[in-house]
Amino acid sequence: MSVLNDTDNVANSSAPQPALNTSSPGAHRAEILENPLRKYAHVRQSQRDSKPYYTSAVWWCGVALMGIGELGNFAAYGFAPASLIAPLGSVSVIASAVISVIFLKETVRVSDVVGGSLAITGTYVLVTFAPHTITHITAHLIQYYIVSWYFVLYLSLEVLLFCILLYVYKKRNVKHIVVVMLLVALLASLTVISVKAVSGMITETIKGQLQFIYPIFYVMLVIMIASCAFQIKFLNQAMKMFDATEVVPINFVFFTASAIVAGIVFYQEFEGLALLNIFMFLFGCLLSFLGVFLIARNRPKIKQQDPDFIALDKIPSRSHTDKVQPEANTQTYGSLAAKLMCNSASRTRHNS
């Protein structure tokens, strides 16, 4: 299951939604690349200054459509190779950009057109040359793949790298976007493996071959839920520390790369594929990466001035550049600023 959409989901759900700056078109474009209808609902509610956003029918429509899309994405892993499904996430970025222009009146830039064209071309190339073999995912097949030596080696290296990155991130306090996104990508690798396993076994059950009686189904289900939860956690932290224009394209590239590697190593999806097909598939992925980068790059960053802070140089008889936070129940400057003004007024009366 792709968690590319979670980049915007955690941004929209983890904090109260501020009123948007409607005077600067495109200022929020990067934040709505993945969920334009929900953002559209927030815009309407903030402009009307009425009920909370979760009472809006448009907002719930966006949530419902997002859920249906993720459900379809989940089902797709049961019918097609993971290395094919993951790169198609660029289509959602293009579609979201188009919807943003229609609903949010965003300005279309030259880089948007070029990026969309590259992403569409890359999608066509990778779909044409991707592996199209259909594998029936059963519990016995998953058990066979898990004990294969190349997956054991791959998993060992992945766990080792994850522990090193987590140590650097937590203990050494290295808050670099590449470190955080690599943690997400390593978790995404397990997510793709488990999602395809769960989806495939559900598909086989619907066809008549019951798979729920095997413990491996529930093991994969737990891995899927846990890896998705930790991905959202790290994505949420990334959205708080970095701008969405950085998180969206990097997350897409890293997630897609990890999904392709997981499909190759665990499900052996490139087995028997011609060298030309492999080269063209990777070239199509590269075009999609570049297209997403061009769509997300150079989005205007919002520098919101907190209305609860005032500059001391705005206080009479004071020249300072620091900021003072007032008390929430006061109507003017706050306790410290009020004291400064009182002192100034006292000196004025004394001099007169």
Automatic annotation (TrEMBL):
Chief location: membrane
Classification via PANTHER family: NIPA-LIKE PROTEIN 2, PTHR12570
Gene Ontology terms, MF aspect: magnesium ion transmembrane transporter activity
Organism taxonomic ancestry: Eukaryota, Metazoa, Chordata, Craniata, Vertebrata
Protein known as: NIPA like domain containing 2
One GO cellular component, as annotated: membrane
Keywords: Membrane, Transmembrane, Transmembrane helix
Similarity remark: Belongs to the NIPA family.
UniProt superkingdom: Eukaryota
Subcellular location: Membrane
